[in-house]
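Lab notes, practical 5.
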Amino acid sequence: MSRIVAGGCESYDEALLEEFFSRAFEEIAAPPAGCKVLLKPNLLVGKSPNKAVNTHPAFVRTVALMLLRGGCRVFVGDSPGYESTERALEKSGIMEVVRSLRLEIAPFRKRVTKVNNGISPYRELVFGEDPLDYDLVINMPKLKTHMMMGITAGVKNTFGFVPYLDKAKWHLRCKRDRLLFASVLMDIHAAVKPALTILDGVTGMDGNGPANGRVRHLGIVAVSDDALSLDAFLESRLPVPSPLPVSILAGEKGLLHETSVIDLGMPPVEDFLMPESMEVDWNLPSLLGETARRVFTVRPKWVRKRCNMCRTCVNVCPGGAIRTGETNILFDYRLCIRCYCCHEMCPTGAITV
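Output from the prediction step:
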């Protein structure tokens, strides 16, 4: 049986967070003493905590302190979208936690090949870190919307094991097929096999997330030993169209298990905006669905006044649909696969939808 402990926390007060995590560990399972642990936060891009893009440093500090008291050796890392792990840690505020607690950094610069026998058609996965190098992995996602998948939470967060620009290659393979991309995410998650997922939803993001949406105070915290079940639970409690791609596929494959939920007062959420990119054709016949995609799927657009011509959008575009002119950014929409990596990775918010 899968287990979820969900509740509310009004702020990032570390005493309140530790109280909740201690209760959750009692109900699920505390990490064993003396083990080697990888904390894998959401470290999408180096932005400050008030932007609600990354897992908050207070979450990392609180969990790390609890582990250190148990004699654990604690590593922190993720593979950001285009910059180094160290640079993103610095900008996100997590590096201060690393330094003050003398944690170790997992830089995610390896090329670890995993044979895959999962639900996707792909038989090989490449990771920037080997989860088997650690006694356990603790998955620490941020609750946000996602332009392609609807919501990014437990399962999507382990996509960060894919190194840097290799992520764009997966988008190119899957193109606009959200269920195919969901199958890849689920295979990666199964290979990582985190022992716990600890969700940061104290502040989150709705609208056109996961990097340039609306920052929201949600007051949500949750811990689970099964990220698939946690994601499905969140969909049931948020005002979102449900099920979303990962939960659709998990249901079809029989991967959603009976779940025990201990609700310690998870607050209700209203007025939760989904991305403008979410398609309208889930249950439409194929021809009608394809027509709906052509008409209604939004396109990324360039905003001149926000752009510093850094070429991040060009570098991360898996389809090669973006190029720079002398003073502008140009899109070839015939090549655009609507993955919205350009929107997600733009450091200045110069790509909108």
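Observations recorded by the TA: Residues 239 and 259 are 21 Å apart (CA to CA). The longest helix spans residues 178-192.
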